[in-house]
């Protein structure tokens, strides 16, 4: 506890560094695969992954978070959770083998049968490593986690690109995540040097599942809310429409999902250790929240301003129909960044019941927005989704912060400075874009405009808004406490 601040800061820097590396690796793979494969390939796999994602959340049942959240654990307790994970993984694998014909019938797509069964095998490998990941997270060994994540991602991408070049089409997208999971599993077992035992007794399973089950149910509800549109588009508009929407959705969520996962990976165990200290909880949360917003707000503005060039550079000319969808989905980046960190706070404080209630309000409203926009295709769905998420920001934040050490004034101060800096920086960049609009290649225009935006944003944020000291303090913390995580 004495070095928690140092470990948290170093862990955050390490985690973000690895996630930035992973972002560039995945971006390169997206650029390459988008030029080898066609929208139909992505749409076909998207039909399955929209469903598998739900089961991917269920496979853990929140048991890894139990390991991280508990104040004390022992080998028998962790082993109990491991065997629970394995039982769930086996059950899900069997379900997918049985469920495959149902998916084929629902989408009227015979190719989905074998694809669905293949994805089912992946649950066994991910279940076998859930507790090993939790142990590394609990010990705040983020360097080890990051290196395993990067290495397994590179191997999986290499396999995917190789299969795509050899003409295996959508199978490249199927085996890419499975290969990643298998290799990560091997590395995690080796790194932790932990081999589960068969416990003499399974302890209080009910209390374990009460907490972990609530967290899992919350995650499942939100996953359904944020992915139901893909099922609807695939069912009523076909693989090509879903493929275009899915690429735009994945591209716009790639940087922010990696950012939130990297900071959340550090924030949750740190906040869990401060459950009884409201002052330190407030300080830790606001620092993490401010960092998320400082990185997310410029991303949101850049996606709106440079959507056409981003799509052209990262996906290529055959994906031109994704530009408008990409731009329309941009507000969801900011909405997610404003709301999501409160999930870490509520879980760390044991207030998982409130998170579940919030999800039960958000999910039906978001799904309703999809249904309203569905008749207009992917554009209508994107408009409905962004509009609803924007409207939910204020009431969800007010509800989430109630009864916590965080005040409305704290939130307003966290948002104001990066938002103002982003608007001013975006204005400069937009002027530069108008000047270059017809005079250069998309990649050059994107580089110049984004550079102007980034430099002007940082100058205003650090000097105009007086945030320089905050980030210098973070660097000083790294320099003063150079211990290894």
Provide structural commentary:
The chain has two domains: 37-203, no CATH class; 225-485, no CATH class. Helix content is 84%, strand content 0%. It is built from 17 helices and no strands. The protein has helices at residues 4-36, 39-58, 63-69, 75-107, 112-138, 142-165, 171-192, 205-272, 278-305, 307-314, 322-339, 341-348, 352-374, 377-401, 408-436, 442-464, 468-480. It starts with a helix and ends in a 5-residue tail after the last helix.
Compose a concise summary of this entry:
The protein is mainly alpha-helical. The chain has 17 helices and no strands.
Q: β content, as a range?
A: under 5%
Q: Strand pairing plus helix content: what structural class?
A: mainly alpha
Major sheet attributes: none
- Count of DSSP helices? 17
Q: State mean pLDDT (0 to 100 scale).
A: 83
Total number of distinct structural domains? 2
SSE pattern, N- to C-terminal? HHHHHHHHHHHHHHHHH
């Amino acid at each position: 506890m004495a070095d928690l601040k140092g470990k948290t800061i170093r862990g955050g820097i390490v985690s973000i560094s690895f996630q930035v590396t992973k972002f560039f690796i995945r971006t390169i793979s997206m650029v390459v695969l988008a030029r080898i494969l066609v929208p139909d390939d992505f749409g076909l796999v998207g039909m399955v992954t929209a469903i598998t994602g739900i089961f991917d959340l269920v496979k853990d049942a929140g048991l890894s978070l139990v390991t991280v959240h508990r104040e004390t654990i022992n080998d028998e307790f962790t082993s109990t959770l491991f065997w629970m994970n394995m039982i769930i993984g086996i059950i899900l694998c069997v379900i997918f083998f049985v469920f495959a014909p149902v998916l084929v019938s629902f989408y009227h797509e015979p190719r989905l049968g074998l694809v669905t069964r293949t994805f089912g095998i992946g649950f066994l490998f991910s279940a076998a490593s859930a507790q090993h990941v939790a142990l590394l997270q609990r010990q705040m060994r983020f360097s080890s986690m990051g290196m395993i994540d990067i290495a397994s991602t590179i191997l999986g991408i290499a396999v995917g690109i190789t299969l795509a070049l050899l003409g295996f089409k959508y199978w490249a997208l199927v085996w890419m995540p499975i290969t990643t999971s298998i290799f990560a599993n091997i590395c995690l077992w080796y790194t932790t040097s932990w081999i589960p035992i068969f416990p003499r007794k399974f302890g209080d399973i009910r209390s374990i599942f009460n907490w972990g089950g609530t967290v899992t149910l919350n995650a499942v509800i939100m996953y359904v809310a944020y992915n139901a549109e893909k099922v609807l588009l695939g069912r009523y508009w076909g693989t090509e429409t879903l493929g275009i929407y899915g690429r735009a959705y994945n591209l716009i969520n790639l940087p922010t999902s990696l950012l939130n996962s990297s900071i959340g990976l550090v924030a949750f165990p740190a906040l869990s250790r401060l459950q009884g200290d409201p002052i330190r909880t407030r300080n830790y949360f606001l620092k993490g929240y401010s960092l998320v917003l400082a990185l997310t707000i410029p991303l949101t503005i850049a996606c709106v301003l440079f959507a056409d060039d981003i799509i052209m550079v990262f996906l290529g000319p055959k994906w031109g129909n994704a530009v408008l969808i990409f731009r329309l989905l941009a507000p969801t980046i900011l909405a997610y960044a404003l709301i999501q960190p409160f999930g870490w706070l509520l879980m760390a404080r044991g207030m998982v019941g409130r998170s579940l209630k919030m999800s039960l309000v958000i999910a039906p409203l978001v799904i309703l927005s999809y249904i309203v926009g569905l008749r207009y295709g992917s554009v209508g769905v994107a408009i409905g989704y962004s509009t609803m998420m924007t409207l939910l920001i204020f009431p969800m934040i007010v509800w989430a912060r109630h009864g916590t050490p965080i005040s409305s004034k704290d939130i307003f101060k966290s948002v104001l400075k990066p938002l103002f800096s982003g608007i001013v920086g975006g204005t400069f960049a937009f002027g530069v874009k108008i000047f270059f609009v017809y005079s250069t290649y998309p990649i050059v225009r994107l580089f110049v405009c984004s550079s102007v935006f980034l430099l002007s944003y940082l100058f205003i944020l650090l000097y105009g808004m007086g945030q320089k000291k905050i980030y210098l303090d973070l660097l000083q913390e790294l320099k003063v406490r150079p211990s290894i995580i």
